[in-house]
Structure formats: C-alpha cells, structure tokens
Amino acid sequence: MAGAPLQQVNFVNGGMNGQDLYFYQGAPSSTRKIRPVEVGIMRHWTSNAQVNGTPVVALIVNSGLLKAGPRPYIIPESHRADYYQDLHGVFFTTPDFPPGQLWMGLQPDSDFIDFVVNPGMGSLYLAPGNYLFPCPTKVQSWIAEEYLKWKRTGVMPAGMNHTFAQIDREGGLQDPLDMPITVVRYQKNGKITVLRPDLLKNPY
Q1: Which bin fits 197, alpha (ψ -120 to 50), beta or left (φ > 0)?
Q2: How confident is the model at residue 2 (pLDDT cuts 50, 70, 90)?
C-alpha cells in the first residue's frame, strides 16, 4: 500500500457553498509502513460516542478491542475533501498530537483510549498525527444490503456505482476484524484513569 500510485476515481461538486469531494485509489506519497515500537503509546479518540447508551470508551476498555469504522482516510479542507478509499481500518494518533488538528471536533476533555499493541503488528504512517492499522472497513448495513440486492438483481441503485466498485475491488463484502489492544490509560468524561503505569514508562 505504501507508495501506491494515486488514481482519482470520482468527483462530487459541492457547489458554491459546499465542499468538493475527490475520491482516490492508492495512497498519498507520505504513506509509509511503521512499526508500533517507533510510535510508542498510541491514542484513539472516541469523540464521546455511544452505542446503545454505553460510551464507546467503556466498551473498548472492557473488551480490549478496537473496531474499524465506516470511513476511509480523509484529508478535509474548508473547500474540499480528499477521500483515500484504499486506506481504511483503525485510525490512531499519539498522545502529544493536538486533538484540534484532527478535524473531529475534539476537545481536550473528549474521551480517548491510550494503548499499545503486539509489536509485530503492521501499521501505516499517513501524515503528522495520523496513523492506521489497515483492515476491512465496516460497511454500513444499508449499503451491504443494497450491494447484495444488486448482486442478485443486477439493478444498480442510483449513485452507488463507485461505492460498489470499491467493494468489488476489495473482493466483496469482508467480515470486520476486531483488533486486540492493551489499554494503558483512558479518559472518560474528562477524568483520566491509568490501568498500566508500567507501560507508560516502557510501552515496548
């Protein structure tokens, strides 16, 4: 993946007051493979999200697992956003990277998980403060249903040709993967709890 040439595959005009959306296959030139030991402690912001009323940060702490989200790597600007469709999985940053630069609406007291992983796991450096564990994307249920319906009937829903082409390009619908982690500390409702003080000093 690292160094894969870029190819623009779609464009959506945002009009006078919206963002123009550019969709690419491949990876930005800055992308490179990196070992967990080179990063040290990793941070995953949960944006205070909840699932069925339970904070995501609590689900991660209790399970020791991270899950891929539905979106690929996106570089947003005020007037445009670049979507890198091949770069998806579990995104993370580092504790020292300013959360306000992640375009997630984060505040210093937003929920997060600090963690380490098996040192043999592969990851990608994307840009300052932006890293990725590549794994199958979480295809939203309604998209998966429409995709399977298209496979049965051959009738393409309006506006879904590029989305379905990307799914096909990756071998069809893939089962999501849960990524095991060791939680070092976490923040919930602005309060930090340290679970592994030994790993704060020597993460690997």
Answers
A1: alpha
A2: low
This prediction has a pTM of 0.89
Q: Is residue 57 part of a domain?
A: yes
> Could you tell me the strand order of the sheet in which 80-84 lies?
7-12, 20-25, 80-84, 73-76
How many Å apart are CA 189 and CA 102, to the nearest integer? 19
Dihedral over alpha carbons 57, 202, 121, 60 (to 10 degrees): -10
Find the domain containing 180 and state its range: 31-70+89-138+176-201
Q: pLDDT tens digits, residue range 13-54?
A: 988 778 899 999 999 999 999 999 999 999 999 988 888 999
Backbone angles phi, psi at 51, to 5 degrees: -125, 115
Over residues 125-144, the pLDDT tens digits come to 999 999 999 999 889 999 99
- State how many domains the chain has: 1
Give the separation between CA 136 and CA 147, rounded to whole angstroms. 16
Q: Within a domain: residue 48? A: yes
DSSP 170: T
Rounded Cα gap, residues 82 and 19, in angstroms: 10
For residue 192, give every residue at least 6 positions away whose Cβ sits within 8 Å of its Cβ, in sequence order, or none.
185, 186
